[in-house]
Specification:
Layout (H helix, E strand, L loop, with lengths): L6 H6 L15 H9 L4 H19 L5 H15 L2 H7 L10 H20 L8 E12 L2 E10 L2 E13 L2 E9 L2 E2 H15 L4 H19 L1
Helix pairs in contact: 3-4, 5-6, 6-8
């Protein structure tokens, strides 16, 4: 199971995270270009504004842990396209699930995503995010580059893939240290399902164990 959590992964729901989505990674040249070019001002503003909201919560010492949890849960729906990500991480197995099976997975996956950022709420105080550019893959599908600095840590580059839908832009994947988190998570989930004959209950149980471990860490 993927363990590569970060500030942006938490904010986006780690990716968490309906409809078809390509899994192809951007070429290295396009990723480098994203740092220095500005292709979509609206997408860049979305990332900057939503990341700022997240950081304000992380840096607000007047909020209790429970208040931060509640605020983060609401922010996830503003930042990430949760239904799209939830379908995507199941890969080809999404088509074989009954509505009841998918709904059970979706609820468990959301609990897992919430537990990831809740277990790390105190780790990112003092950080800021600055958008550095964007590349338009196609209209309404943009990779936005950003740099996270501060908090006593070296600067890190984070790329957000955002797609424009009915309610404006939402994040569908985040690249940290060269790894696209939703794509990697899909690989993990599909591998688990492949190894257990496509039994979604095995994956659900695994996510519940990870959720319980994250909640124990948060305490």
């Amino acid at each position: 199971m993927i363990r590569r959590q970060s500030l942006v992964a938490l904010a986006a729901g780690a990716l968490v995270f309906a409809g078809p989505m390509t899994t192809a990674l951007l070429p290295a040249m396009a990723q480098a270009q994203a740092i220095r070019s500005h292709g979509d001002a609206d997408a860049e503003m979305f990332v900057q504004n939503e990341a700022t909201k997240v950081l304000q919560v992380l840096n607000d010492r007047s909020m209790s842990l429970d208040q931060k949890k509640q605020t983060f849960h609401a922010l996830i729906d503003q930042v990430a396209d949760v239904p799209r990500i939830t379908s995507f991480v199941l890969g080809r197995y999404r088509r074989s699930l009954t509505p009841d099976q998918f709904n059970a997975f979706a609820a468990t996956f959301r609990d897992y995503a919430d537990s990831v950022y809740e277990s790390r709420l105190g780790e990112y105080s003092g950080q800021t995010l600055k958008v550095t550019g964007s590349v338009v893959r196609q209209p309404g599908d943009v990779v936005v580059s950003s740099e996270v600095i501060g908090g006593g840590r070296p600067p890190s580059t984070v790329n957000w893939r955002v797609i424009r839908g009915q309610y404006g832009y939402r994040a569908v994947d985040v690249q940290v240290a060269g790894v696209w988190l939703a794509i990697t998570e899909q690989q993990d989930f599909v591998s688990t399902l492949d190894n257990h004959g496509g039994d979604i209950n095995v994956l659900i149980k695994q996510l519940r164990r990870n959720t319980a471990a994250n909640e124990a860490h948060a305490r």
